[in-house]
Design goal:
Number of domains: 2
CATH topology of the largest domain: pyruvate-formate lyase- activating enzyme
Number of helices: 17
CATH architecture of the largest domain: Alpha-Beta Horseshoe
Bound molecules: cobalamin, iron/sulfur cluster
Structural class: alpha/beta
Number of strands: 16
Distance between the termini: 82 Å
Oligomer: single chain
Helix content: 40-55%
Length: 550
Amino acid sequence: MTLERGRQDAGEKPRKLLRLICPAYPTFNIYSAQARVTTALGPICVATSVHELPGWDVEVVDENNYHFGPRGPDGKPDHKSIQRCRRADVVGIYGGLTSTIPRLYEIARLYGRMGVTTIAGGQHFVDDYVEEALNRGVDVIVKGEGERAIVELLPKLIAGEDLSSTAGLAYLDGGRVIQTPDRPAITDFDSLPIPDFSVLHYAKMKIFPVTGVRGCGMDCEFCAVKGKPRFATPQRIMAQFASAHEKHRARRFFLVDDLFGQNRQETIELCRLLREYQNEMSIRFTITVQIRLDKARDIELVAAMRQANISTLAIGFESPIAAELQAMNKRLDPAEMIELTALYHKAGFHIHGMFIFGYPLPAGASFDMPIRERIRRFQRFIRKARIDTLQVMLPVPLPGTELTRRLRDQGRLLPRQFVGLEYYDGNFPLFEPDKPLTCETLQAAVRLIMRRFYRPVQMVNVAMNILAFPALVFWLHRLRVGWARWCRRWWNSVYRTGGWFIVRRWTAAFKKDAFLAKLAQAKLRIRSEAHTLAEHHKTKSDSRHIAREG
Ligand code: B12
Ligand code: SF4
């Protein structure tokens, strides 16, 4: 069955359809629940640009937020059926998360077999991964930002024209990889259309992503976000909130920018616009932002944020261990971190603490803290800082980062034929850690910290908080303070109960997974390679010695 798409151009040419797909996460992970009610902003931005292309329709299918479309026997979206209902002429696939790349290849091959041209874009596509993707079924890779590239690329693809004059692409020509020059980074964000979430099919949206900055000047060793920051105007960011609210009744937002408040004056202006808009519309947003700890000292900024109803701060603490922070190039001081967190708490924010456990130190750095002591340090810090919700992850050697280069040079990365990209989601060890740590103890340590934080007793606390509600009468003299305290306790117990279910579900999925067997094979290979390398060095030095003796 093929439903004819209704509208046609004046010239009676049938309209074309671009379908953008966000590939499913490989397994259940701590983000899966959130992913069911939000979506990746990149494909929405790209799709919105295509709206302005004459003769083209566009839709986005997010496999992680897919509630009522056709499904195949594996429970995943049935693309053959979707394609039978509405034939896409070109399919674009989001490659922003390395862990979803195996699924991206599957989708590309599936559509390739149906005769559809496939393109892909996102942060994963750097270095050798560009060529790999082209050899695994993707026809064209868009490198970097997609909004401008897509509107140049689509008409050329359909007309079968040469692509060599379009910047920011990679494709195969007679088996040879062609990479066109990089595209200049977008700076005039005001000229781009406001992201339009109505392109999303089969989804239920509760948390709407918004963005105002691209790039980050901080250069953390493990991070894939690179380049000088480029800022949108406060008015433009405000327009994204307003559009999502007025079209989709959005109230919960996640500002995906990595460092909120980087350009101070504009951020304060944005907060003012947000406050006025909510007053005008008589609504109250719930906004989460990612921010650095040192902004806690900026009293004016913090007050403006509260007035704008920014309620949750996601903070990359990364580690309470100074040597690890230094290796990450994180420019944070553990001694100050607790004090700064307290300032945010005092202002009334919920703190979502993001940590990396077991960061590998550079060669030559001597640091051999036993695992128990590391766990204790993390737990003590989390307790003292009164973190409200928590995520502890393992370091991920992401494509294109300094960390990956360093681990590769040291021969510590686990070979991909055993531990594939589907494990690159922060829950699995992916390299030989520093002694005395092992891959297994690292992973167990993270589970332990998360389990101790998200305990089943939180369910009792939910009930206790309900019972304690009438006690607010004792706060009548300072009702706002009493209410804020009650809300915080209530919010924490509800979220931590949710967290307990998530950790439990992840552990159950992990037990069924073959990861540990794969890990054992990978470690054997890495050791035999290290042994061969050591033998090779020994033979070389012996021969040199013998030659000298001779
Ligand atoms: C929001 C966010 C999340 C959200 C949602 C993720 C999502 N996108 O679905 C949540 C919280 C769930 C999340 C989780 C994780 N995240 Co995250 N996240 C981000 C963040 C902060 C913003 C993403 C965003 O919206 N950017 C704004 C949009 C506009 O940019 P964009 O996505 O790059 O899209 C542009 C281009 O790439 C391109 N493009 C993108 N797709 C396509 C498709 C086509 C066809 C075309 C033509 C072009 C194109 O055009 C877009 C517009 O210009 C980024 C950092 C960042 N600044 O990008 C990290 C980032 C994407 N996350 C990252 C990581 C590592 C993770 C985690 C593993 C946690 C961790 N350890 O850090 C988990 C992974 C979960 C999993 N299942 O694997 C890495 C990914 C690197 C990689 N190669 O995998 C990033 C880059 C941050 C970093 N530390 O380096 N994340
Ligand atoms: S981790 Fe955050 S602060 Fe560091 S480079 Fe990445 S985006 Fe910037």
